[in-house]
Specification:
With about 150 residues, this protein is mainly alpha-helical. It is built from six helices and three strands. The protein is about 50% helix and about 5% strand.
């Protein structure tokens, strides 16, 4: 919520985060859709406010709770926290084949223990291997049946 306009690199499509939860600065790539929306916001920004998500009435930051609740209502979603999106990203990236090292890097985690809190693949992995083993057992059983 403290992201400022001078931290956005439109040319290279990056947001340069000076402060993160783990204490290390990092750059985050921005997809085309995010860049387009940031450009739209940049065109109508208040030049007296350097914070991208500035309050309309003060120079401070905004609280996104009201906007988030409205977005959930419009999408007909319940029981979804903004932070859940990080968990979803990590899980979906892992399903696409991202390694633990890659995931830790893109999530900005210093340890693999922290990464494990964000990826939720246990049930999927158990299902995958259980189905594979069951299939192999069934094939083996079919091969042993008398003709």
């Amino acid at each position: 919520m403290q992201l400022k306009w001078d931290q956005i690199d439109f040319k290279n499509q990056l947001a340069h985060l000076k402060e993160t939860k783990n204490g290390r600065p990092r750059s985050v790539p921005l997809v085309d859709e995010v860049i387009a929306e940031l450009k739209r916001l940049h065109e109508v920004k208040n030049f007296h406010k350097q914070v991208i998500f500035a309050s309309k009435t003060t120079f401070g930051e905004i609280d996104i709770k009201k906007s988030w609740q409205e977005a959930l209502k419009r999408a007909e979603l319940t029981n979804l926290r903004f932070h859940d999106m990080r968990h979803s990203f990590a899980t979906l990236a892992a399903r696409q084949g991202a390694s633990n090292l890659e995931l830790a890097a893109v999530m900005g985690h210093r340890t693999l223990q922290m990464l494990q809190r964000y990826t939720h693949l246990e049930a999927d992995l158990v299902r995958k291997y259980s189905e594979g083993i069951t299939k192999n057992l069934n094939i083996g059983a079919m091969n042993e049946q008398p003709a």
